[in-house]
Amino acid sequence: MTFIALLTKELRLRLRSDRTMWGLVSYVVLIGLLGWFIYYSATRNNFSPDNFGPSLYAWLIGIQFFLIFCLTPSYTATAINGEKQRQTFDLLVCSQLSALSLSAGKLIAGVINALLLIAAVLPIFSLVFLFGGVSPVQFLETLLVYIVSALFLGSIGLFFSALLKSPILSTTLTYLLCFLWIALPYF
After folding, report:
1. Which pLDDT band holds residue 48 (cuts at 50, 70, 90)?
2. What separation in angstroms does the CA of 114 have from each of 2, 37, 111?
3. pTM for the whole structure
4. pLDDT in the model for residue 144
């Protein structure tokens, strides 16, 4: 098995499931409803149109980052020890993939799910440009932060998945470390 074959297998397993489709649809609907709720509450409170665009943008990027923070580690926290639990890890080892190829394939497959969530809500974020106050450079910088954060959070999940035998323990420690990564700068 080659790296491309492993990546193709992982992506087929992850992206063809009904869970992925319904998760993506509910994610987009959730972000859209939250954006609409912010707009509706602002119009009811006599908002100033000059600073509504940046305000809506700030809310949307905060919500989006929170959801990426909650979902991305779950895609990779059981990638390797889940294979061991399903007793399919020996097949991967026998495929003569290097450890780097195996971990990179698992990481890329997990992070692609997070990138798919980021890409799915881009049309909702583009509505912010109608209100003004947000430049395309700010938007691209935010997109870069999302991608780097997804890679970092996915790497933490993959690390604990390779280190620990129990998927529950690896998921718990992944979320704990991710929470500390977010919370420690505030203390």
Report:
1. low
2. 24, 24, 5
3. 0.80
4. 94
Which residue is associated with the tokens 């035998």? 165
Tell how far CA 52 is from the center of its chain: 27
Helices (H), the chain: 3-15, 18-44, 52-76, 79-85, 89-94, 99-120, 122-126, 128-131, 136-163, 167-183
| Cα 130 → chain centroid | 26
Show the tokens assigned to 95: 């495929």
Contact criterion met (CB below 8 Å) for 69 and 156: no
For residue 152, what pLDDT is reported?
92
- Among left, alpha and beta (phi > 0; psi -120 to 50; other), residue 87 is left
Q: Which amino acid would we find at residue 74?
A: S
Question: How far from 169 is each of 103, 163, 165, CA to CA, in Å?
Answer: 19, 10, 8
The alpha-carbon radius of gyration of the chain (Å, integer) is 19
